[in-house]
Structures are given as C-alpha cells and as structure tokens.
Amino acid sequence: MKTVTIxxxxxxxxxxxxxxxxxxxxxxxxxxxxxxxxxxxxIAELDYNPNKIARSLKQKKTTTIGVILANILYSFNTKVxxxxxxxxxxxxxxxxxxxxxxxxxxxxxxxxMLLSKQVDxxxxxxxxxxxxLYQKLxxxxxxxxxxxxxxxxxxxxxxxxxxxxxxxLCVGELAGNGYEKIAIMTMTPxxxxxxxxxxxxYKKAVEEYGVYTNGxxxxxxxxxxxxxxxxxxxxxxxxxxxxxxxxxxxLMEILKYVRVNNLKVPEDLALIGIDEIxxxxxxxxxxxxxAQPTFEIGAGAAExxxxxxNGKELDKGNVHRFEPELIRxxxxxxxxxxx
Amino acid sequence: MKTVTIxxxxxxxxxxxxxxxxxxxxxxxxxxxxxxxxxxxxIAELDYNPNKIARSLKQKKTTTIGVILANILYSFNTKVxxxxxxxxxxxxxxxxxxxxxxxxxxxxxxxxMLLSKQVDxxxxxxxxxxxxLYQKLxxxxxxxxxxxxxxxxxxxxxxxxxxxxxxxLCVGELAGNGYEKIAIMTMTPxxxxxxxxxxxxYKKAVEEYGVYTNGxxxxxxxxxxxxxxxxxxxxxxxxxxxxxxxxxxxLMEILKYVRVNNLKVPEDLALIGIDEIxxxxxxxxxxxxxAQPTFEIGAGAAExxxxxxNGKELDKGNVHRFEPELIRxxxxxxxxxxx
DNA sequence: TTGTATGCGTTATCAC
DNA sequence: GTGATAACGCATACAA
Lengths: 339, 339
What we know:
The structure is a homodimer. By secondary structure, chain A is α/β, with parallel strands linked by helices. Helix content of chain A is about 45%, strand content about 15%. In chain A, strands 2-1-3-4-5-11 form a 6-stranded parallel beta sheet, with helices on both faces. In chain A, strands 7-6-8-9-10-12 form a 6-stranded mixed beta sheet. In chain A, strand 1, helix 5 (about 75-90) and strand 2 form a beta-alpha-beta unit. In chain A, helix 8 (about 165-175) runs parallel beside helix 9 (about 195-210). The interface between A and B is large, with 53 and 53 residues. Chain A binds a DNA duplex through helix 2 and helix 4.
C-alpha cells in the first residue's frame, strides 16, 4: 500500500505541487479551468487522499478534540458523548474518547497524550486531582470546556445541570403530593459537584417546603452498601414515606430493594429520581424522574469549544446552568384509594 | 502558547537534536549518564512535550484507530466501544469514535476522513452499502476488523455472536418450560447479519423442538409499528403463549404493550429477549435474557486489530463466533398455580 | 496562472 | 557517544 502523495499527482498532471495544493484547498480563482479538470481527473485516477497529518504539522491544527469522561457506560456520559460527536462531525472535527474512570493517574496520562497529539481542544468531566494540570492549560489559553463538574481557582467554561433546582423539583413534587417525610439517597464520594449541589438543593427545599427531615434521611453511601443502608432506613421507626434518588444508579439500587422486599410504590414508598432512565415508562408504576437536557449539555460544550478553537472567545469561563425537567409519572403520586 | 520543540531542548542542553531524540526514544545505550541527566532536567524545566504529529509524519504511524458504529447510544455499541477503548488504552492507542447512524453517506465520509488522518486501523460495524470501499481497504491489506456484521465477497476478520444459537436458546428455554406457541419479533430492515441469522435460528429451532409456528408468528417490523403488530398478533385467534424479542429495543416495545394492555407475564405471555438489559433483574417478573459477551467481542476486535497493525497476521479473515449465554429468570417460566 | 524554495517537528542514517 | 543532514507530505511566500 504505497501511498500516493501530492507530488505524484503533480507529476502525473504535469504541474507543480503548489498548484495541486491550491486545487485541494479550493483556491480555483487564479487557476485555468483545464488545469483544474486535469488535476481532478488525476486525483480520481490515482485515488489520491491528502495526508492530514502532514497538513496538521504545517498548519498546527488537527481538527481533532479529546473528550475525557469517567466511563462511557454511564447513561449521562453516553448521551453527552453522542451529542458532542454530532456537533463535531457537523463542523469537521474528530473526537477521541477517553474513559478515565475517575482515576487521576489515567486522566493525567490521557491529557498528556492528547496534548502530545496536538488536539485542538479538550472537553472534560474532570476529577479534582489534576487541578494544576488543567490550570496550566487554562493559563495557556488552551481551548477547554468542562462538563458536570466545577473546579476551584480557574474560570473554565462549564456546562452542567442546575443541580439545586433538580432536587428542589423532587422535593416539590413529593411535597405537593402530600408526602411529608422525604429522604434522599446519593452515592459516595459525595464531593463531586453534582452530588454536593443536589444535597444542598435538598436541604434548602426541605426547609422551603417545610417538610420533615433529619440526619438519617440523608444517605450517602457507596453502591455496594446501599441495600443495607436502605434496610436500616426503612426499618427505623421513623421511616420516610418518599425517597429521592440523586441519580440513575441509585434509583436502580432502590428498585432492587423495593423488589426484594415486595414494597408497593408509591403506597409504601414514593419515588423520584434524577436522570431519565430507559424504563421509566415501562416499570409499574411508571417512574417520575427529573430529566437532564443531556443532549443540550453535550452540544453546548462542543459548540463552545469549537468557538474557542476558532478564537471567537465569546465566553470567558462562565458556568452554564441547564434546566432540569420534571417528568411526572406515578411513582411520586399520592394514592388515596386501593387500586 | 509558543510551543517548545526538540530543538529548544537541544540548544538549552547544549547537545544536538539527534541526541535529544535518542533520549526520548529510550536509546540510552551509547549515551553518557550526564548528558542523559542534563536532558532530563531541561525537559522538565521547559515542560517539553514531544509533538506526536511530527513523529507520526515521519514514522507513518499514528497510534490511533477509528471505530465506526451505528450509534453509541445503543447499549451493545456502548459496551463494545468501552471494551475497545480499554484494550487500546492498554496498548497506547487512541480511538476516534464515529456514529454513522447506518447512513452509508456518513459512513463513507468517516472512512475517508479516518484514512486521511492516517489511522493505523479501523473497527467497523459496516453497512452493506460501502462494500467496494471496504474491499479496497481489504485488498490494500489495511488493518480492518468488523463487528456484528458479515459482508460478502471479502474475508475480513469479524467478531459476532453465534446468532442462530442465541435464538435456539430462546426457543429451547421456552419449549423446555412447556410453551408450544412461540412467536418472534424483530426490527426491520431484517437484512443485517444478526437479524437475519436470528430468524434462521428461530426457524431451525422451532423445527428441532417440534413446537408450533406459522407465518404470523414471525414479525419483522419497524419500531413505530410494533404496537399495532403486537395488537394484531395478540388478538388473533391463534395467539402465541410466548414471545421472543430479538434485541433490547424490541423487548422494550413488547414491555410497553404488556403494560398498556395489562398483560401478566408470563401467564398471559411468556417473554425472553436477546441482549441483557439493565433492568432485567428489577422488572417484575424478572426478565429472562440471552446475554451477548459484549466486552469479549469488543476486546477481541481491538486485540486482533492491534495484532494486524503490528503485522502479526495470525488471523486471515476468520469469522469469530461468540457464545450467547442464557440468563434464566422468571419471564420465561411456566406458572402452574396462581401466586 | 503556476513554479520554487522553505519550514512544520520529528526520526533515521551515517559520519565523526 | 554525539552531531549533521536528509527525509516525511503538505502549505505558503514569493518569484516568475
């Protein structure tokens, strides 16, 4: 598979490399129609495909970006990724995917590899352990957009849900349906931006709506311990009537518990979860959720990044909050009569 | 952000570019320990990061591969992607993600862009409309591995499920539980490899197990028409006792129908689906499924591609079949007594 | 309108 | 042990 270069095309067409280059870059203005046609023909004949690596070297532009996220298997990330790729494809960018697994070492290696590959920009859901590295990029004015997480001490443009509002919607929905004892469950570590903010939103909302809460009603736990924590909660004398799941994985755990213990939803326990899950409409009862505008978040990040790459610095490190949307179904409703 | 090059390091260290290059590539053999240390220090000082684009140009190797799939949002694809990226990361490869949406035009553009970017190899779930293009690559001996779909007239290494066996397992499980009227539902177009093979498997198995079937029991339909088709099927006088969903999306549609019509599973309709869905264990009743070894398929494709890139052509275009696994739960069981 | 020369940052081949 | 120099394939002044 010996590669055919611009030189081969030039020779065969009896013109110089520059002329072919002109042709390739659409600068037909000062070109004879016949040369144009000849070059076109030869290119087809030789099946010539320009080497973008060489082009990138010269132009210092790769039309490639890197996306660093925890794990593409998580639904939010999958959707965000798809949105990013869509926008990038429209604009002629390629995207390199990096699953950093919230592992700072891995994240660091990815960042360095991406830079070394001269990507034009990076979109990341950053861990908080590579702050200096990101800070370096940011200071160099390297195109950078964060998703879902805010890092201290640097104003990098960030796209994320209005997390406080999301939990506020949860509490509001449950309170509005007459539930007064509302607990919340979240994954640990509870230090990442969304988890932290969602808890804050809960606390504020509980106060605002005047519903009951106590320390035991806020459960932050690793996935594996959730069943035990749920058991403790539900067997306490002050058991809640309703439970908020701060993300899809947590909701799944709660549903497992519900199933094993044969609880009736919402009679025994009303539920609402942040993140729209695939089976919300299929489950019985259907599950009320707070949907994130995942597509908008991903697309927004990609659009902004591309603007930055193109030097249109319309955004100087703002935090962009996206609206959560309550999708009311039946797991959060108050059932007065037996059905 | 003026970039620091190997030349800067060389100058500052008082050596030549060649020596720095040697250092970078770990050829310390003939290098004085002190030069080595000096270079090391300078590199740290200058925060030098080698430009892999330049390196790629010279070496004709980008350590990047492209993955072309229909849509990362589909669960099978997400998992396969994650597996590929894992293996690639271990081996120092980067992966560019391409959502072709089963659109031949898009697919073609992606292939050309990837080649133009000099990727070292491509993993694809190909449409059948770019056969000539793939054939060209294959003839050039360009590293290429397919997943999930077999294309005629070229022996490209392909990783996919033993699809016939998958539906055979479905029929076997249902028949073994005493169901005798077993229908199957698949998405159209039913021409892609897995859909075609799964139908074949069904037909063979129905014969083998001697259970009843007829033309109406094989439903191939676009997603949007499935509700109507299901209604027709279930309201016919010869309604099936059990239904096989050939993939997760189809199963979702069936579950919607079940919910709307308040059917009892498995009493009114037993179910089993190919693809392990996230809520199989949470749904009531739990859902029997045939799991694909998605991780193994993705990892296998990546490993083989990397071997090919490295010229270890251990595999000459074989078709690798992966074993489906029956996960028996309750939607396929025969209930004799009321519970 | 087209050609020549040079550089992009690196590696490879030889000398020294 | 180390250095000079020529590629890699393309783009861009500037010349013609």
